[in-house]
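Consider the tokenized backbone below.
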């Protein structure tokens, strides 16, 4: 099992959390998604390491962005 953590910018409500959870959950290999609204924390659990670019793209598809490069 592998986990990766990110910080999402722009979320303001439960709907935001649901949108990010839903989009990131569609990334191949992802088995669990945990989003913390207060901190913007995003933890992605997968059976194998997941492509960071795919996670960033999923967050952007939901309408938000991941901090850092």
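A designed sequence for it:
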């Amino acid at each position: 099992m592998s986990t990766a953590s990110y910080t999402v910018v722009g979320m303001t409500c439960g709907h935001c959390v649901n949108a990010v959870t839903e989009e990131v959950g569609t990334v191949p290999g992802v088995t669990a998604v945990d989003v913390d609204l207060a901190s913007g924390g995003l933890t992605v659990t997968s059976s194998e390491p997941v492509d960071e670019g795919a996670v960033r793209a999923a967050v952007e598809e939901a309408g938000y962005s991941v901090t850092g490069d």
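The mean pLDDT is 95.
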